[in-house]
Amino acid sequence: MPAGRFKIDKKMKLIVNCNHCALELHKEIMKSIQPITVTAQELLERQILVDIVDDNIYHFRCKRGHDNIMYLDNLKFEILYESGINAMLDGYFAESILTITAAIERAYEFFIENISYKNEIDPILYKSTFNLVATQSERQLGAFYFLYLNTLKKLPPFFDTKLVTFRNKVTHKGYIPKFEETEKYARAAFDFIKGIFIDVVEFIGETSHRQYHNIRYQNAIPKLKELHSKYNSPQGSMSLNTILCHMLVLELYKKQEYDTLLEELKRQKRKQGN
Questions:
Q1: What span, in angstroms and rounded, lies between the C-alpha atoms of 17 and 120?
Q2: How far apart are CA 256 and CA 271, in angstroms?
Q3: What contacts 256, CB < 8 A, 6 or more positions away?
Q4: Strands across the sheet containing 13-17
Q5: By C-alpha distance, which of 22, 25, 26, 21 is closest to 63?
Q6: Which domains does the chain have, with CATH numbers?
Q7: Helix (H, G, I), strand (E, B) or coil at 199
Q8: Could you give the CA distance from residue 133 to residue 141 in angstroms, rounded to a whole number?
Q9: pLDDT for 8-64, tens place per residue?
Q10: Are strands 13-17 and 5-8 parallel, antiparallel or unpaired?
């Protein structure tokens, strides 16, 4: 399953590259006696913007007519948090709060799902049970609290109550937040989600965590095969280099700092002209 790193533009679209075009360029370089210079404009012409989708499965067609089928390996909370941070940097503060809140909720789900996997709960049974609370965030939070307590034998993490009040003010009362308030919320959410992720991987082990991602990919195979049959295009995988990124080994993940990662994202956005 080949993997690549892809970027996001300011409208939260994936900036992807055509595998067929990349292979053709590689062949040209290998055949050429003289060095081949590829201009920035030529590279841009090989890129495609695609909307982010919920199921992590993508079909897109490049400007040369090549069909591509890709599976995105990022976790839902990683994508949502990245979207929220981009919204904050682009001046959409209320939208940022709402999206980062959704990322926190999906981190709860990530914990519940991984612990259920570790406990060898049948995936179909797990999904049927989670569907009972899928539209009720408070019940998901309660499930997280007691599963965390029962599993790790310690008090579960609580998001700052003042920030919860602030979030509810934005969500339910239409309060328009300032940048400083939004940034404070984003910083706290980063530390909170990061902590949940570390707790999960330390408990189930990095090998089990990798197996969890393999199961996610296996679940996507039927649709990937359907697209392959329809477009006669090979399948690939891609991963976003997000601020919260599960691809790092745990010891490196623990060292990730909000300020450093935010500055890197700002630099990338300046480079892209966003």
A1: 38
A2: 22
A3: 194, 243, 244, 245, 248
A4: 47-51, 13-17, 5-8, 235-240, 67-72, 57-61
A5: 21
A6: 76-214 (1.20.120)
A7: helix
A8: 10
A9: 555 567 888 888 888 887 777 777 766 666 565 666 666 788 888 999 999 999 888
A10: antiparallel
